[in-house]
Input
Amino acid sequence: MNVRFYWAVREVLRQKRRTLLLFCVSFAAMLTVLSALTNAAAAFWQQDTFADSLAFPLETILHLDYGDMEENPSLPHTLRQYRAYIAGLPGVQAVGRFDATGMYFAELKDRADYQAVNSRVLAGGKYEDYPGISQLLSVDEALLPFVQGNLTEHAQSASGALPLYASEVFAGILPIGTRLTDERTGEVYEVMEYFPRGSRWVEEDDLIRFPMVSLDGWFIAPFAPSADGDLMTQLSCLHNTYVRLDTDVDLNAVTQAIQTYPAQHGFAAKAALLAEEFHAYCRETGVFTRRQTALAAFVAGMAAASLLSVSATGILLKRREYGVLLACGFTRRDLALCMGLELLLVAAPAALAAWLYKLREFAGSDDLFRDILLAAHWRVSLPLCLAAALLLTIAAAAIPAAMILRCQPSQLTGGEANGAD
Amino acid sequence: MALIELENVTKVYHSGGTAYPALRGVSLSIRTGEFAAIMGASGSGKTILLNLIGCMDLPTSGIYRFDGVDMSRAGENQLAQIRGRRIAFVFQNFALLDRYTVRENVEVPLLRQALPRAERKTRAMAALTAVGIAGLAQKRPGELSGGQKQRAAIARAIACGAEVLLADEPTGALDSQTGKEIMDLFARFHARGGTVVLITHDRQVAAYAKRQITIQDGRIIQDEMV
Output
């Protein structure tokens, strides 16, 4: 074994209190550094995930933002006419909505085999206690490319029932052609095909800021004709309405038309390019990331200062000892490396322990951002945390090592010599 | 040929812009197998001279040759090798590492020689046996008397196979009887062909040496065989 490493290990083991103190300082510092780094990295991760998830260029999608809408029976009709108006504007390809709900299929809600499979899907979620429920994503064909699940269009069933796509999770218990009835509306659906495991969908409350949602255990279907007249469904879709544009559209004209129509019909709505909303999010993320990075750097700096003071004190106390080692054939470079290794042997395990602690915390949480936090923690925070441990060590060992490197061996053994004579 | 050879060596320390000459043109030659005592008043420069001989410091000017090699031009590794293999120090206050056992202390210079653990242990125990404290191998320095500590320090010096033993007041912290026992160990090392250079104020200790060198104000003023 390398003599420097051997000596460093012995010193770490022999100075248990000092080792424990250094470990605790490093562990506490790395916990904070890792939280800040993972949060910062997760924000970027989310940004990248969203940018990669859509099948359209962000510059060709407008997001409708309705103002306060009066909830009256004519609202569904008003909104339907508004969407039809937008769809007819030059340069507009289509207008689409989506709505994710929990509902019951009369044929499934009491079936034991369905409940058994569904229970596994719903475990830990808001529907955990409702194994008979079905999670349905109603989506207009225009927005199907939002789904990562190989669906591009709604098929027509021979029976005239609404097409229903089931997660592959249900392939064993729901054969193609199974007909299911919406218990509330009476609409009949027919299972047309399965979409694969791992399919995902944008989060309905905020598709940019929130991570994508797994569609394992879900159903996908077009809106039922009755939904167009259903106030609840229309309200639910208010903030999930998007306009697909041609690439050569006159954006100003379309935007102005979209905003003028509501004013003439007694309500308010705006349209913003998804690209603009995304850039706004990126700016927010940038500020957040800079703050988190500054926090991480500050805490790392404080930790380095603590380690430096502990190591410098230790080295001053061990000055005579280093003199003895030099007298016994060690070089000053050996000593400097021993000091660095001693710190690294404590700081690196402390960093890893802190990383594992956070990993366990993220893995056990039911946070919406759990998967993104875990991904960022693995792919970004782990290498950064090891690099931080190395940098902390170098920063904390550099000054004491320089002190030693400047001294002649006799200056270190001075306390042991017979005065300065 | 001289094993240790100094030619017009000076050592000057600087403090607050003032130069303090500690050695002023020292020339000295010590052959293999000699037993020399360096004597002088406090502040005369004898410890500094011993440090230069032991490659623990470098001269400001002049030439120091060890076994014919100019140490002023030697690199850090070469100096460390000489310190760890050919020259060994015995300090007045023993300079043992408190956290380590006596045997581990004796093994320290052997670590740098990259010897296998078993051989290190064998050589350390042989050295401890030679100085009569093999039974204290697992004790810590804090559990030993002054004489036992100095025996451990001598064991550390001889375990590495050094041919030169440098000692700075090796009996200064010991009673006269223990001091005599320690000096007997130096005499035995010398009798086996080793070179010994020690610093002492004590005439009785100096009487063990065959050569007495007196230093005053950084200059050798007397160098005689006895």
About this structure: Confidence is low (pLDDT under 50) at residues 415-421 of chain A. The two ends of chain A are 39 Å apart (CA to CA). Chain A is about 50% helix and 15% strand.
